[in-house]
Fold this sequence. Notes:
single chain, mainly alpha, Arc Repressor Mutant, subunit A, 3 domains, three-stranded antiparallel sheet, 16 helices, 8 strands
Amino acid sequence: MKHSVEMFKASNTTYDTPKKLQFKLLLGNIAAYNGEIPLTRNEIKDRLSISISALKRIISESKYTGEIYEKDGRLFVNPSSIVDYCGTDTALYVKYFKFLSSPEFMAEDRRVQRFVLDMLCQHVYLPSRKYVTYVKNLISSGTRDSGTFNVRTVGEMNSIIEKAGKYLNLRLECRQKRDWLVVVHGLNPEFEEMGSFDSEGALLWVSQKMYAAGFVVEVIDQRVKNQLAKVMEYYYSQVGYDLAYNIFVGALDDLLYSSAFHSMIYSEIQDEKQLDEISAYFKNVAESSERFVALGITLEYDLTSSLIEDASRIAKKEGKDPNKIKELLDAKAHRNNLEKKLHLIESMWIHALQRGNRSIYLNQRDSKLQTVLHKMKDLQSLMYEFWLAEN
Length: 391
């Protein structure tokens, strides 16, 4: 994941303290699939060098403003604050330059930090990009998309800009006596050369799930985690977070006592062939997890449908309208959600079969899988075409 420009526009940092700004920088760098934050509160506290009570205040405030939310005991970043891992449009995200977390920058006036971050949202660090505006527009302008700064005078804003000039390649010009103009050409070389941080989200997420499953993540090569992250990214792109999460975690649970998998991931990695073997082995087990997840959804769908039918029949006998009973409406909405999940899995299996992965085709006689395939007419038709081609 990457930081969305929405995260650091002036309009969205008006009340941010320096620690809150560092919290947001950290979130964008560690956010993983669907925005999940794969660090514990203690780990976040340690990274920010703050007390747990201070972190609780920041988290509470961020929940209130909608920047983060909690689901099933896990923290997530609001999707509007981050750009998905597959996003490549440089206009959508802001680079996390290393100087932003340096003691030097963190000691600057909060308003200076906000101005620098807002200019990074204008992508002034990209080649041939510059930002030009009247200083008065930075403090009171209804036309500035990224918002204004809570500063009262042009003179005060000029002082902030001059201090920001330590990090930004900029100049202030006075036009027509009172109209000050600021031109930002980019970052000063010494700060640009410090480089930027790569996203940690995927690796942290994989490490967290492996640790939760019982693996000793500290001794597993980072390249191995990268291979598993690629598998997760495949599922995430195919079926979304919830299903991908269940498939991936299910595969880890199945592999916890696999001596073959242990010998692979705990060995010293010598070449790419080993890494490919690890991801292939994991993907094979994950495909079994796919079928297990699909079966669970199918059984839940059938049970929900049966309960809806029984409840509707009883309601009609009692002279009630089933379409006005909240519990029944909620159950139907839940069933629709289950149906959508089955469609996602079916689409993934169709796509895999068309690309030459015959796992589903070869396992179609399995009684549990047949229960699932009963709900997947399009996939059944495709597999029938495969059968005709072979016979």
